[in-house]
Amino acid sequence: MFDRATYNAQYHAEHKATINARSLRYYHKYKKKLLAGRKDYMKKYYKKHCDKWSERHRPGTAANDERNAQRRARYAVDPQMQKTARAQSRKWYWSNPDKAKARMLRQYNITLERFNELLKNQGNACAICGRNSTDKRVFPHVDNCRETNAVRGLLCTNCNFLIGHAGDDPAILRKAASYLSKRRPHG
To answer: Which of 90, 130, 139, 159 is the most buried (most CB within 10 A)?
Structure first.
């Protein structure tokens, strides 16, 4: 009599390398789709089965808050932990530039798509000096009103510091421009 389980075990033992190579090719070909599906599945699963989460891993619980407090206390005094955490953070930042930008933009209530639209409308240049950065790693600063948090435009680092140190006061900036034009050395 034919035993399917025995046959399958024997086949897999004999063809292990071929099966693994095929699986690996499939994974790399459909990696993004597989990981996105897994992420969605896990979100749904945790939402449906939140009672199965251990108290330790449930966000906002006393056990989780205590564990985080212990971690922060250790980080404050352990240079090796600081070095490791910074290296991991740097690695994540450079591996996920769009996610990193989106995280930074949340404080201004704009999306990465809106940011890219603003940058395109400004000709990929600073709104004040017009300098265009060709370095893709340089992230233009979002200039926002300090009172309303409304986004005014995107600036290079120097222009952002200029406005920030002037306290967003146009009168100070006009005085600075007047000062520079009066005291320009004649050559």
So the answer is: 159
pLDDT of residue 64: 77
Q: How far apart are CA 130 and CA 61, in angstroms?
A: 49
- The Cα–Cα gap between 118 and 97 comes to 18
- Helical packing angle, 97-105 and 112-121, nearest 10°: 90
pLDDT (mean) for 41-64: 72
Looking from the CA of 30 toward its CB, the CA atoms found within 13 Å total 8
For 55-169, where are the alpha helices, taking DSSP H only? 62-77, 79-95, 97-105, 112-121, 157-165
**In this predicted model, what pLDDT tens digit does every residue of 102-127 receive, in sequence order?**
888 888 888 888 888 988 898 888 88
Cα of 68 vs its chain's centroid, Å: 21
Q: How far apart are CA 110 and CA 149, in angstroms?
A: 11
